[in-house]
Amino acid sequence: MVQGQKIRALTFNQRWREIAALTLNGYIHVFNAETFRQTLSRKLPSCQDLVCLATQESGMYAIGCKSYTLLLDCRTLQSIKKITSRYNGCGIRSASFRGDMLTIGTGLGLLMFYDVRAGKYLESNIHSSKTVTLKASRGYVFPDEEADGYNQVKYVPAIYTHCYDDSGTRIFTAGGPLPAPLIGNYAGIWQ
Hints:
five-stranded antiparallel beta sheet, WD40_repeat_dom_sf
């Protein structure tokens, strides 16, 4: 592994007993979980603001960055698909798989659903191209911090993490302010 680079995200690939690490300098490194020896490493193609990493047990990694989610083959680290975000400037902040459903959390407080098998975002109905989303509530922001100029801008918490329960019928989401000077938090359960 490249020395001195900070790790931004980790995920465990149970099927192949591997740990994948995403670094700030744009690399993904894969290690054998039993020996901790590096097995693969790859510089990612022009990704900006690498933030999150998720594993699909059937053989895919999802990497969230500034404006899209990149799907990689777990065995070769070759790109499978680039999923452009439906919302400009949202920044992908979290990702998780539930079977063939990739769930994407954003810096705009939106949770989006992408069907990997169908190759498209879930839409609200057949005659509409409106993407199905869940929108986070305001959450909590420390009042003194809002007074520093952010109260003129409508605040929405970023969704920094999310996961499904074992039944797949509920999603836990958590996060907080995207702007660094703000202090706060957000958590929600969707049923």
